[in-house]
DNA sequence: TATAAAAGGACAAAAATAGTCTTGAAGGTG
DNA sequence: CACCTTCAAGACTATTTTTGTCCTTTTATA
């Protein structure tokens, strides 16, 4: 329960790979996919999403490829996860008005709200730069 | 992402219904299902799990039905959720040895560990008794 | 123009979720 | 005992989500 899907894992692995590259270096999707052991076409989709959101920048044609769209220290784990998994949402109830007619008189609601904000807070506080650091 | 399934929602609704019953009163699965608006056969499965774990006690035959297996104040939301959804597990990595060969040198790992323990802590601190209280 | 790459869309397979149905077992009642 | 009531258990089915694949188009470079 409450689990990241494979897509989420792949996304994290992929962007960490980019973050570990020397400044200014671009990487082909084929290279990234091979390096982080993810089906290339699947990873390509994920990186398309990244690109649309500006998390990575992409260039086509010879010499093209992907690089981070901004410094790794400015990309949070939350962003990466939410791009592919959607908003962190422990329960439908939290979707908003109308989605849970019970919301008004539902004591469980505030619990999920708390869960959500705690998880968001944790993931917001982790940057890709930290995750990319090689340490032991 | 990170979401409760319908089964989880149903489980919570169902056990709260039980908790709101007067002491010692038993409820038929048909009654509960109608009251909380859940397919009866599906809810029956959920309650079978509850019974196996002792969260509810069940009796067959005329006059049978379900009641809480212990005081609502002694049943945590975490227990209820985990019975039907399995352990709270934001990432496969946390499953244990061998499940993630990256674990040893993976900086993301501790983040999921933190998420897990935070969520568990929240859900452990909420009892069904609290959830069953009618207030406004 | 030919080639290299990402973008985008349609499709397909597999797994998880959500739910049904049928039969069996246990317990009461006349 | 015969019969009815209720939960238990397992097999089955349908739907949705996840996890991919493949093919065509667009953009860029040489």
Provide structural commentary.
2 copies of one chain form a homodimer. The first copy, chain A, is mainly alpha-helical. Chain A has one domain: Orthogonal Bundle (Arc Repressor Mutant, subunit A). Chain A contains 6 helices and 2 strands. In chain A, strands 1-2 form a two-stranded antiparallel sheet. In chain A, strand 1 and strand 2 form a beta hairpin. Chain A is elongated, with a radius of gyration of 17 Å. The two termini of chain A are 29 Å apart. The structure holds a DNA duplex (30 and 30 nucleotides).
Fold topology:
The structure is a homodimer of 136-residue chains.
Chain A: H1 6-20, H2 29-36, H3 40-53, E1 56-59, E2 65-68, H4 77-85, H5 109-124, H6 128-132
Antiparallel strand pairs in A: 1-2
Helix pairs in contact in A: 1-2, 1-3, 1-4, 2-3
Chain A binds a DNA duplex (30 and 30 nucleotides) through α3.
Spell out the helices and strands of chain A N to C: HHHEEHHH
Shape of chain A: elongated
**CATH level 4 superfamily of chain A:** Winged helix-like DNA-binding domain superfamily/Winged helix DNA-binding domain
CATH architectural label of chain A: Orthogonal Bundle
List the total number of helices of chain A: 6
């Amino acid at each position: 329960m409450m689990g990241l899907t494979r897509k989420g894992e792949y996304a994290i692995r992929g962007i960490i790979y980019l973050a570990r590259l020397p400044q200014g270096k671009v990487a082909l999707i084929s290279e990234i996919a091979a390096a982080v052991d993810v089906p290339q076409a699947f990873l390509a989709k994920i990186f398309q999403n990244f690109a649309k959101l500006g998390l990575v920048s992409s260039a086509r044609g010879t010499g093209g490829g992907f690089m981070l769209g901004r410094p790794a220290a400015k990309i949070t784990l939350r962003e990466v996860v939410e791009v592919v998994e959607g908003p962190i949402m422990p329960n439908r109830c939290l979707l908003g008005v109308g989605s849970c007619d019970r919301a008004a008189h539902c004591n469980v609601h505030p619990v999920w709200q708390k869960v959500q904000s705690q998880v968001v807070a944790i993931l917001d506080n982790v940057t890709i730069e930290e995750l990319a650091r090689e340490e032991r």
